[in-house]
Specification:
Strand content: under 5%
Structural class: mainly alpha
Length: 76
């Protein structure tokens, strides 16, 4: 699951989630598109806020996740 999917599933807007963890919403939006360089402390805060284990959150670029999902669907 991506950071954005975790946020949406938890019922937060980007502004609400960003405020809850003390970052600007544009920073959060940036990490939702490419989380490959997110700090562990912020990732941990978001994981706790969204109530999703860190291991269930995809870290990387959004387009890589889309490519991985498409490949898995083709294999099925």
């Amino acid at each position: 699951m991506s950071l954005k999917a975790a946020r949406v599933n938890a019922g937060f807007t980007s502004k609400e989630a960003a405020e809850a963890v003390g970052v600007h919403y544009q920073t959060l939006t940036k990490y939702e598109k490419d989380s490959s360089d997110i700090s562990f402390s912020l990732l941990e805060e978001l994981s706790n806020l969204y109530q999703v284990p860190i291991n269930n959150i995809f870290l990387g670029k959004e387009y890589e996740l889309i490519r991985i999902i498409a490949k898995k669907r083709q294999e099925a």
